[in-house]
Amino acid sequence: MSASFKAFIGAVAGAVTLAACGAGQPSFDSVDITGADFGRELDLTDHTGARRTLADFKGKAVVVFFGYTRCPDVCPTTLAEMKLVRAKLGADGDRLQVLFVTIDPERDTPELLANYVPAFDPSFLGLYGDAEATARTAREFKVFYEKVPGPTPDGYSMDHTAGSYIYDPQGRLRLFAKLGQAPDALAHDIELLLGNAPKRAPSVTSALSGP
Question: Does residue 196 surpass a pLDDT of 90?
Answer without folding.
Answer: no
